[in-house]
Amino acid sequence: MVYRGKEAEKLLRELGLRGETESKYHSKKIVVDGITFDSEREARRYGELMALRLAGEIRDLELQKSFELIPVQRDSAGRVVERAVRYKADFYYYDNRRRCFVVEDTKGVKTDDYIIKRKLMLYVHGIRIKEI
Question: Which one of 46, 79, 97, 128 is at 20 to 30 Å from 10 when CA atoms are compared?
């Protein structure tokens, strides 16, 4: 079932989640299959990937997979002085045709933080993010 606009806002409030459905970048939250997505674009891509999974073209689909870019920093006493920096991919899956894992991000606005994390993903993990 797909919820949009006011229906999504009502469901999020009932679940005790964020009552606002619009972000600072004007994307509207949407709920599909009980999963809350940050935008209609991300929800639409989820539907496309589910169809590809059912067709056997992809496997091992993960949502919101986290990658460490910079590890936690500790002082000489072992206390945390800086938390780890992480990148959270919208989608991560194995492409059976290309025989490789794919990291995808559905981007409307490419923030400075995202661009730095995209570059760190390539530098640290050798992974190029596929932008949708």
Answer: 46
